[in-house]
Amino acid sequence: MSLPTNSVPAGDIRDRLIISLDVPSVEEARALVHRIGDAGTFYKIGYQLAYAGGFDFARELIGQGKKVFLDLKLHDIGNTVEEGVRSIARMGMTFLTVHAYPQTMRAAMAGKAGSDLKILAVTVLTSYDDNDLIDAGYAPVPAAELVARRAEQARDIGIDGIVCAATEAQAVRGIVGRNRLIVTPGIRPDGSEAGDQKRIVTPAEGIRLGANHLVVGRPIVKAADPRAAVEAIVREIADA
Fold this sequence. Notes:
Elements: E1 17-20, H1 26-36, E2 42-45, H2 47-63, E3 67-74, H3 78-89, E4 95-99, H4 102-111, E5 118-122, H5 130-135, H6 143-157, E6 161-163, H7 169-176, E7 181-184, H8 203-208, E8 213-216, H9 218-221, H10 226-239
Helix pairs in contact: 3-4, 4-6, 6-7
Pfam families: OMPdecase (PF00215)
GO molecular function: orotidine-5'-phosphate decarboxylase activity
Catalytic activity: orotidine 5'-phosphate + H(+) = UMP + CO2
């Protein structure tokens, strides 16, 4: 069976790797970005860094010509999400995550109207497996089924893209079509520790399964030579 093709336009292959700045301070993030240099073009800022001065640092990165993925996984009443997204859209971010609940997705799409910001809906966190979903009260829905259901809802709402485990990317591509983004965390190069991720694949596998962008954090952040780690992953993406 042939694997799905994705719809990423021709461009800088480095943009397909999103480097997760999983560090506790702006100083460490700035030092890491400096060490990576022009090998990296796209960075993710999540809770840890965002609440330690990361919003201002995001603006700094954008000013340097980098792309920024703000990973806040917003989920609140519709008006709160809409107004929050409207503020974020003015910051120049490339991607923003929200949880894939219909009301939240609709509000986010309304809030980003007129901007270039892309809203990504998070289906099921890659640190969750079926047992975690049972603990959360989703029984008897397995992770793959819940991912598919939320992907269908996101597609119908017109969301820009989906965040899902690469193990589900092929199925999600079949649901959302060629023109929506698929962004996959839980990527681990060969030899890397899984950490708290439970549904993981290598960079090459992620691309072959239909992902547009791969999110990689600890294998780069904790590498002895982060630039070399980035370059190796980008080569693997290009080969795939």
